[in-house]
Specification:
The chain has 473 residues and is of the alpha/beta class. The protein has 2 domains: 10-227 and 427-441, 3-Layer(aba) Sandwich (Aldehyde Dehydrogenase, Chain A, domain 1), CATH 3.40.605; 232-419, 3-Layer(aba) Sandwich (Aldehyde Dehydrogenase, Chain A, domain 2), CATH 3.40.309.10. The chain has 15 helices and 20 strands. The protein has helices at 3-32, 39-55, 57-68, 72-98, 135-146, 160-171, 186-193, 206-217, 241-253, 273-288, 304-313, 364-371, 387-396, 431-437, 462-471; strands at residues 101-103, 112-120, 123-127, 150-154, 179-181, 199-203, 223-226, 232-235, 265-268, 318-321, 325-326, 331-332, 335-338, 355-360, 379-383, 401-404, 418-419, 425-426, 428-429, 439-447. A hairpin with an 8-residue loop joins strand 1 and strand 2 (112-120). Helix 2 (39-55) packs antiparallel against helix 4 (72-98).
Length: 473
């Protein structure tokens, strides 16, 4: 690059930074005007989102196919339907969430009423990933505007077609000072994180999450980090093998394994390992046919970089089934690996692809040793008919959320909050939990004037001490 091109690029970057700075300022002015606070304003915004999702549904489904080769069936089931369910749930319950919540009044505050009031943070930044580019833009957006915030969304540059549709869709129903979309790559991410937001919601990798947290710390901005990790799938010898195989394959094949809560690796009792392998192979063939790469509805890796990364992770491993891919289509066959070591490269990072390494355990102590080799995962799945095993696992295994005798579906209901713990994230959202995430709950004591007990006032005296000690022991 010559000096002239370098100056042009620098000028372009400065102009973009200035535009983003002005956008944040415009949203802050709009929020401070108070127009987003009322129930009517929030419901109007949610209705606009509902209109947009209906109006732009064909474009969103087409963009999902272009970016990830997601079929319309999977695109609607795993993205649009969940966003619509979240939206409908928030619209039904918003009035109740906005009401004062009264709590018991303690002796020290008598006579008074004690309650909390939810208020929006202000200007919110939502940074979305590429793997579920519609759902993970729209669900936090719905929660944030239900809470009364102004919102800037930064979609992933790895899903450019979806990002373009979302930009057009939200511009069709919101002024930029209310809801805006900033498209682009690292330069835009950097420029946004230099601004002062009132809340940041990030979904993505651990490494980028650390950067977001570091940038937020400068202004003491609260954050939610939805990250990932190696989510285990545990199958004990009491499990229903047929049902377990069907549900594990569903969870692993969804978006070709590019799901933050996909079963990352399998831990199975050796007594049933080969029976489970046979059942998993049958379910893969049932889902995708004899040659999975020929199935038109099977998604691909998002780009060549991620395709090569997953293919390299499989090198030197024994594949029970699969183990190959097509660099032309960026698809990788569903793969089960056996006899995998904890030291293998594939066990050192989240796979994010349709590959399932297998480990074995015979005792609970062995199982815990495997699980504690890794950071706390975003999800955990346990297949068992043993109630004692179920209770033991819930007591001793730390994870964000999960299922017993299923995979993935815990994140589909607005009634359950969704989020990680430790290295898999902080904070949660969905439904009421999402409303609370994007709200600050103010605690209020409303004191009555009819009585005013003198014990708390100067001058202190022995009789005042005696009364306090009598009331509060």
């Amino acid at each position: 690059m010559n000096k002239k091109d370098g100056r042009r690029l620098e000028q372009k970057e400065k102009k973009r930074e200035a535009e983003i700075r002005e956008l944040v300022s415009a949203q802050r002015r709009y929020f401070l005007s108070g127009v987003t606070l009322s129930y009517e304003a929030r419901m109007d915004a949610l209705r606009r989102v509902r209109w947009a999702l209906r109006k732009f549904e064909p474009q969103l489904l087409r963009a999902l196919y272009q970016d990830l080769h997601k079929s319309p069936s999977e695109g609607y089931m795993a993205e649009l339907s969940l966003a619509k369910e979240e939206l409908n749930y928030c619209m039904r319950h918003l009035a109740g969430w906005m009401r004062r919540e009264y709590v018991k009044t303690g002796v020290s505050c008598f006579p008074s009423k004690c309650f909390t009031v939810a208020e929006p943070y202000g200007v919110v930044l939502i940074m979305a990933p590429w793997n579920y580019p519609v759902l993970l833009c729209m669900e936090p957006l719905i929660n944030a505007i239900a809470a009364g915030n102004c919102v800037i969304i930064k979609p992933s540059a790895y899903a450019p077609h979806v990002a373009a549709v979302i930009e057009n869709m939200l511009a069709a129903c919101f002024a930029p000072e209310r809801v805006a979309v900033v498209c682009g790559g690292r330069d835009e991410n950097t420029a946004l994180l230099e601004q002062r937001f009132d809340y940041i919601f990030f979904t993505g990798s651990v490494n980028v999450g650390k950067t977001v947290l570091e940038k937020a710390a400068r202004y003491l901005t609260p954050v939610t980090l939805e990250l990932g990790g190696k989510s285990p799938c545990i199958v004990d010898k009491t499990a229903d093998i047929g049902a377990a195989a069907r549900r594990i394959v569903f969870g692993k094949l969804l978006n070709a394994g590019q799901t933050c809560v996909a079963p990352d690796y399998l831990i199975v009792h050796p007594d049933i390992k080969y029976a489970l392998f046979a059942a998993l192979e049958r379910e893969i063939k049932r889902a995708l046919g004899e040659e999975p790469l020929a199935c038109e509805e099977y998604p691909r890796m998002v780009n060549k970089k991620h395709y090569l990364r997953v293919m390299n992770l499989m090198k030197g491993q024994f594949a029970v089934t699969g183990g190959y891919g097509d660099p032309g289509t960026l698809r990788i066959a569903p793969t089960i690996l056996d006899e995998v070591s904890l030291d293998a490269p594939i066990m050192q990072e989240e796979i994010f692809g349709p590959v399932l390494p297998t480990l074995t355990f015979t005792t609970r102590e062995e199982l815990l040793a495997i699980l504690r080799h890794f950071e706390k995962p975003l999800a955990c799945y346990l297949f068992t008919k043993d109630r004692a095993m179920e209770q033991w696992a819930l007591r001793h295994i730390s994870f964000g959320g999960g299922c017993i005798n299923d995979t993935i579906v815990h994140l589909t209901t607005p009634e359950l909050g969704f989020g990680g713990v430790g290295a898999s994230g902080m904070g949660s959202y969905h439904g009421r939990t999402g409303f609370e995430t994007f709200s600050h709950r103010k605690s209020i004591v409303k004191k009555y004037n009819v009585l005013d007990f003198p014990m708390r006032y100067h001058p202190y005296a022995d009789w005042k001490d005696a009364v306090i000690r009598r009331l509060i022991r």
